[in-house]
Amino acid sequence: MRQGGWCLGLALLLSCGGGGSSSAPPPPAADPWASVTAAVQAAQSQFPGGLCVEVATPDGVVYSRSFGGFTNQDSVLVASGSKWVTSTVILRLVAAGAFPHGLDTKTSDLLADPGGAPWAGNMGQVTLRHLLSFTSGISGDDAASENVLISLRAAVDQIYSDFAATASAPGSYFYYGSTHMRIAARMAEVATGKPWAQIFAEQLHDPMGWSPDSIYSGGGPNPNPAGGLRCTGLEYMRFLMMQLRGGRDGSAVFLSPSLVSDQRTDGYGPATTLAYSPYQDAAGWTYHYALGNWLETAGGTPPAPGSPVIRYSSTGTFGWAPWVAADGTCAGLVMTKQAAGTILPSETLKAQLDPLIRVALAQHPPVIRTVP
Predict the structure, then answer these.
(1) Domain membership of residue 356 as a residue range
(2) pLDDT at 364 over 50
(3) Would you say residue 22 lies in a domain?
(4) pTM
């Protein structure tokens, strides 16, 4: 009996994994993001100021790595990353009924020359939609309007004075620049009776819990709505998550689905030609533009049945590169601060990461940071 009991006990011990070192621990799970991290590291030399890359699904952030000392808490000028934010602020005012005809409100409905007469000619026929899609017919940026010592009102008066005689018909061509959004911001001021800083605070900054340091710079009453936003990656990522979720910020509808659709609709009309685009100058790409964001295609061509939009984006001249996948699966942000005129490193990296991110997402990586 004693021998039988001993054998039975030994059998039970072995069946439960006893017996010491014969059972090795399972190997560590493979990192689904290893190829993404390797690609960023391979490109790091092109970002002398360092960079941080984040990827999110609608559930939250699933990847966040810093390289070269740059983090998602560094506050920097995001340059043209501002345009997507400004467009959203304007659209929030549209939703609130601030403009008499919504996106089809004309400059002549709200703006007058220094003598009190409504804007006239082609300049008077420009709508908010034209301004946010840079198809207003205004060619070039008005350097005099960028004077930080004047008001936004004075800046827009200067734009009208300088372009009233030469502006083409609205919708005739696309010209990427800051002038259009200065006019749109001034229209918002007139429509609400509030300065742009207050409008931004009420419509986006405060609801999203941004810090007091995250503002439009550019000189007091004459901010640069097209390129003067300063913020952190953590803050911008909340904005990007709202875009990824189709206009929802947490449980709240921040931007209605119809306005999100408007924001992503091609601003080019049948007669619009491309006059200036930084993408065309840098790489020959002829992307079209919606309301404050680019419509990216795989081949760098305009959207078409055989060339669908794959990303909505708003890359800035200092390399800040946010995007949302057109299929709604993910959003990404390359955070960095470089010398002006260096969009290609971020654009090249973004294109390299896209397929690698999709492979990683297929492995269902966990959320590492929730976002409201």
Answers:
(1) 34-361
(2) yes
(3) no
(4) 0.92
